[in-house]
Structure formats: C-alpha cells, structure tokens
Amino acid sequence: MQSPSKDPVATFSAARDDGDLVVLEGIHPWKHASRFGAAIVIAVTNDRERLTGLVAQLAPDLALDRVQDIDPETWDRLAQRDPTSPLLAVAERRRWTLDDIGGDGDVVVLDRPRHGGNVGAAIRAAAAADAAGVITLGGIDPWTSAAVRGAAGLQFALPVIRLDEGAPLPDLGRHSVGLDPAGPPLPTTTRGATTWVFGTERKGLADRLRIACDDVHSLPMRAGVSSLNLAVSVGVVLYLHRRAASR
Predict the structure, then answer these.
(1) C-alpha to C-alpha distance for 145 and 150, rounded to whole angstroms
(2) Which end of the chain has fewer CB atoms < 10 Å from its terminal CB, N or C?
(3) Residue 122 and residue 150: Cα distance in Å, rounded?
(4) Which ranges of the chain would DSSP assign to H, the alpha helix?
(5) CB count, 10 Å around CB of 203?
(6) Mean pLDDT in runs of 10 for the chain (247 residues)?
C-alpha cells in the first residue's frame, strides 16, 4: 500500500474523477482487490470494532494495520452511498490487455452492455467459474462504481478489458459461440476452451458478431419468457460448460 494521504476527502474526491483509480465501497471489493494484488492507495473506516469482526470472519488472511480511522462527518463526505460494511478504499485500476488472457479457460465477451450492476455480476460469475477473462465491446466501462460493486472487486482477479463497440471479435485461439435466441439449443457436449459471446438483453447479438462466431446457440427458456438476465446467462453457460467438461 502506498503512504496514506493526510486528506482522505481530497484523495477520494480525486479518485472519482481519475480514470487510473477506482473507489472500493465495502469490505468485499477491498478484500478481493487486496487478495489479487491491487495497489491500495488508501483505506478508511468509521467503525474499526465492527470492521475487525467482519475481517476476522470474512477475510482473516488480510491485515488492517494500514486502514485509517476517520470520524463520522468525514465518512459521510466520502461515502456517496452507504456501504454494507464500514470500509472505503481507493486502488489503482489495473490496465489489462488481450495479451493477459492466457491459459485454457473460457472467455466471456459482452456486446454493448448497458447496466453496471449486470456487468459486475457477470464478471463475478466469470471469476468464480475460473474464466480466463471478460471482454466488453462498447457499452459502459466495466470499472464504473456500479460494476465494481456488482463484481465485488473481482476486476482484479482476471483480465477485464473494454474494446470499442466496432472492434472485431478477438481471435483468442478458442472456439467461439454466440448466444442468441434464434440459435439452436446449447448442446450438452463440450469442445474445450470457448469464447462465449453474449448480446444485449433487448437486441440480442449484433449481426457482425453472429457472423464472426463459429457457432450460435440459445439457452432454452419456458414459453412466454422473452429474455434472461445477462449475468444469469453468463453464470448458467459457464457452469454448464464446466460440468460438461468434467464428465
């Protein structure tokens, strides 16, 4: 951790406008950022006793010796929303690139995602399923405050990369499968590491991505149900694939 600032208000205010920094709201984003090697600039609490108990329960591998105590008034100035646990932190944003996606894990591609919470939840599912990376094509920045909250800070656990909306589907040496309601049902067999491409909930997969994919499949749904939440779709697909691969 870098040397703490003597002025937490100035540090947090600057961080919210600095694309190289990210604000972590609550113990879970701080926990994951710390575990996966993030450079923590500053961390503060307004209730050390409660925080100590939570860390003992949820993150006993982490120390609190560099967390600063602040008064309630300062806390209220720092917290744009009330975290579920008494910890706020600033970390250096990790600048992942396509070259960081290695190994033989699956990759998730999100086409023009619009909702930060959904993007974060998709990243969280991908990290839990040991995916090799998450790529967004256009849409919102996957490092927004809402996305970091939704991912519980797991943007630090695996490569999370944002490309322009018109960028071609990256060639990552994996079989590519687009998820689209017009495709045949997703098979129960597996073809090894896969790049899974998810369209928007409203408009589905862009034509150029549908054409670029090796295959296009759908997730079967009950008649009358028109769509499935993006993050839920990502979790279902990744875990179905893991289950098939383990057989």
Answers:
(1) 9
(2) C
(3) 8
(4) 8-15, 27-35, 48-58, 72-78, 116-128, 145-151, 207-212, 230-245
(5) 9
(6) 65 92 96 97 96 96 95 92 89 96 94 94 96 96 94 98 94 93 81 90 85 92 82 93 76
